[in-house]
Amino acid sequence: MPYRSPVADFRFLLNHVVGFGAVAATPRYADATPDTCDAILLEAAKMCDDVLAPLQRVGDRHPATLENGIVRTSPGFAGGYKAIADGGWIGMSAPADYGGMDLPITLATTVNEMIAGACLSLQLNPLMTQGQIEALQHHASDAIKDLYLPKLISGEWCGTMNLTEPQAGSDVGALRTKAESNGDGTYAITGQKIYISWADNDFTENVCHLVLARLPDGVAGTKGISLFMVPKIIPDENGVLGARNTLNVVSLEHKMGLHASPTAEMQYDGATGWLVGEAHGGMAAMFTMMNNARVGVATQGIGVAEAAYQHALSYAMERKQGGTGAIVDHADVRRMLASMKADTFAARAITLANAVALDMASATGDAGWRARAALLTPISKAFGTDVGVEVAATGIQVHGGMGFIEETGAAQYARDVRVATIYEGTNGIQAMDLVARKMADGGEAAFALLDEIEAGAEAAKAGHPELVEPLWQACETLRETTEWLVAQDVQSRFAGAVPYLRAFARVLGGHYHLLAAINGDATRKRLATFYITAILPEHTGLLAQVRSGAQDLMAITIDDLVA
Ligand SMILES: Cc1cc2nc3c(=O)[nH]c(=O)nc-3n(C[C@H](O)[C@H](O)[C@H](O)COP(=O)(O)OP(=O)(O)OC[C@H]3O[C@@H](n4cnc5c(N)ncnc54)[C@H](O)[C@@H]3O)c2cc1C
Fold it and tell me: If you take atom 25 of ligand 1, which residue's CA is the nearest one?
């Protein structure tokens, strides 16, 4: 079944669930009227459904290749990329001064999800560029901004991020790539980077690498890291391309999925680079990019979940087995499909609410919105991608044996999306971020959100008592566990970080499903009822796991593990 962008869901979420009206009411985003939003959703959906979705299977069957040092992209991908660039979708939320549309990140998030649902491998390319645009916007000199931003926003050039090295994965501070001054304002970058997504292609004029490296006086660890712009082809100050830089794609990885996205090992041999931001301030600049990218990676999980769900639903409506009707009539198949749909909705709502908080923070400068966005980012990234992985796996199950046969395309979703829980900070690292850095405020941002959820539940009590009561109880249990958590040492927090993040997402999902039930039709209400009665109770086990602490876990010795 061909992918169809979930425009109606976005419309409903923006207008009735995630509070987008507040964004559109700010002077900064006054242009984001309902009509404009609708036009954007429909236009992007048309491109995704008609142009990008047909590339999904092609890319899997014809991966990107490396021929004599040149990356050849999958058939049709150049055209797909051109459609994205020509539509202005890369620079949707980039500054108008540089050719962007200056639209809310919330809208860019809907479009990114649709592109991911249509063709995940291709989506990763503009997603990287969007992160780079954001990092340059906030940290680069005017000269670099003037030179690079218009080309990145138009899509003539694209961007990558280069953090990972063989010995420096989650531990970015262990990187060894060196940067030495050339004495003319530029730097010589030398080192090896691995797993670099879209490190090269055959459809943009230039590829701009943002590279983390250490200056000679950089201290060990993350505090001694600086960020550099290292273009594949060196432009003059007018953007006219000149000499090839001394960097190369050494090899492409053989991966379990995402075959059309070239993942490269890169070698930099004294390549010319320009400092972005302060010397030794690379991690701060990179974090700007990573926060944006984390919401973007959440859209990858949700987009794939949507596509996998549509695929499975279509199969379940056709396939006859065990009776006269199709398998969709069996309770267990109905359970799988309803869970897929309810979880996709929950993850989408959480991620859009995250984007709304980002937009409100930049439109108002309000610290409360900033804290809300920071709190929601690890939850969106981890839960959005976990849902992607789980829904794609359930999609295979709905197909039975045909799910295991590549022809149906169900397996591709599971293979492609698997990496989304790993890159951009593994989901374990996201959970640790939530319980440590994001709760360094003693849990203030978390409690403020729980207060809102309970107040919303309270207000809906008369109309929806059967939904409000379990949600309110779940929220209270989460509150008690949060109070317990913030009083623990780091080891205990980390031991329960993953189940805590999951439980938080479960409660948030209940909150948004309740809003959907209040403001939506009977279908929305039935789905919300299923989520709150059948899925939300998962939080009880998760929170019990959190409160078991680190002691029993860490009492298991390495000898016990190998015994
Ligand atoms: C397809 C693909 C594309 C990628 N694209 C890019 C890219 O464009 N640019 C780029 O720079 N990188 C990229 N990466 C790299 C990616 O970001 C890393 O793989 C990721 O950060 C994890 O690092 P690692 O693989 O070294 O795993 P490790 O860091 O070795 O982690 C292994 C396991 O240990 C856990 N772990 C590690 N440290 C801790 C800790 N302190 N506490 C608790 N648990 C811990 C992890 O959660 C994980 O479960 C890509 C990777 C892949 C597979």
Answer: 169
Question: Is the Cβ atom of 177 under 6 angstroms away from ligand 1?
Answer: no
Which of 120, 163, 423 best tests ligand 1's pocket when mutated (most atoms within 8 Å of CB)?
423
Look at the pTM and tell me if it is higher than 0.85.
yes
Cα–Cα dist 121/261, whole Å: 5
Query: pLDDT tens across 370-411, in order?
Result: 999 999 999 999 999 999 999 999 999 999 999 999 999 999
Backbone angles phi, psi at 378, to 5 degrees: -65, -30
Output the DSSP codes for 370-401.
HHHHHHHHHHHHHHHHHHHHHHHHHHHHHTTH
For the Cβ of 164 lying below 6 angstroms from any atom of ligand 1, the answer is yes
Which residues on neighbouring strands pair with residue 252, listed in sequence order?
264
- Binning pLDDT at 50, 70 and 90, where does residue 290 land? confident
Query: Where is 128: in which H helix or E strand?
Result: helix 120-139
Tell me the angle at which helices 497-519 and 331-364 cross, rounded to the nearest 10 degrees. Answer: 90
With a 6 Å cutoff on the Cβ, whether 129 touches ligand 1 is no
Q: How many CB atoms lie within 10 A of CB 106?
A: 30
Q: For residue 389, how far is the Cα from the chain centroid?
A: 13
pLDDT at 323 over 80: no
Output the CA 357–ligand 1 centroid distance in Å. Answer: 27
Cα 165 to ligand 1 centre (Å): 10
Each residue of 85-115: pLDDT tens digit?
999 999 999 999 999 999 999 999 999 999 9
Active site (annotated) includes residue 278: no
Return the structure tokens found at 524: 């929305």
The vertex-60 CA angle with 54 and 66, nearest 5°, equals 120
CB contact set of 430 (below 8 Å; sequence gap of 6+):
294, 378, 379, 381, 382, 501
| HSE-up (13 A, CA, CB side) for residue 466 | 9
Minimum-distance ligand 1 atom for the alpha carbon of 164: 11
CA-nearest residue for atom 6, ligand 1, is 196
In which residue are the tokens 């931003």 written?
149
What residues form DSSP beta bridges with 206?
157
Say which residue the tokens 């061909």 belong to.
Answer: 2
β-pair partners for 227:
212, 276
Q: How far is it, in rounded angstroms, from Cα 211 to Cα 160?
A: 8
Would you say residue 196 has pLDDT above 90?
Answer: yes
* pLDDT score for 1: 72
Question: What's the gap in Å between 195 CA and the centre of ligand 1?
Answer: 9
With a 6 Å cutoff on the Cβ, whether 55 touches ligand 1 is no
